[in-house]
Every structure is written in structure tokens, then in C-alpha cells.
Fold this protein.
Amino acid sequence: MTRNQQVNIVKVFSQADFDHFARLSGDNNPIHTDPDFSANTRFGRTVAHGLLLFSVLRGLIDRLKPGQDLNEQSLMFPAPTYADEPMSFTVTMTGNGDDGPEFMLEVKRLDDGVVTCQGHAGVMI
């Protein structure tokens, strides 16, 4: 695997996806599941669970390095990810650390290019 190898997909989550993830994960915070509650927050509407976004990114890591164990991750969520907006998910292999390959992670809105999730991860070889 060469440095800077990249995989990218576009996804559009629905409110039903947020609700389903809440049921699966047990994270029923109303910021993710209750449009009336969320309308009165600084976000103005429901937002995706951060780990829903990371789950997609983890799947992309596996496309670059199939079957490898994740040994570390670091994520930030500088802006919200809303339902019904096309999102670009990108994982770029940036090199090798002491334990194995390292990756840059990014999720951004296609409409305005705003990054909603960024971070890095590493897998063990």
C-alpha cells in the first residue's frame, strides 16, 4: 500500500438512519432523534451521531487495509452533519507509524465544503 492512497464515497443520511443508529447504539440523545427538540438548539435540526460518521470511515479504512485491527483513533466534529445532505467521506493513507499504517479521516458537506468530521486513525499489522 502506497502513501497517500485514498478512498472516497458520498453518502446521504436520512432521519430514519439517525433513528436506526440510535436504536442500535442506545444513544437516544434528542439532538439526534427529536426534530422538535433539535429545532431549539444551536444546530436548528437533528445532527448525526459522531460514531455513525466514524463507522463509515472505518469501513473505508478496511477497503485500504482489509481485516486489520484498529489500534487508535482521534476525531473532532467542527460542524454538524445533517440529514438529507450529501456528505463526502474520505480516508487517506498517510504513512506508517510504529505499529502500522496511519490514515487521515475527513467528512465534508458537498454543498459548501464544510468539514464536519476530521481526525486520524491507525491499524496494527
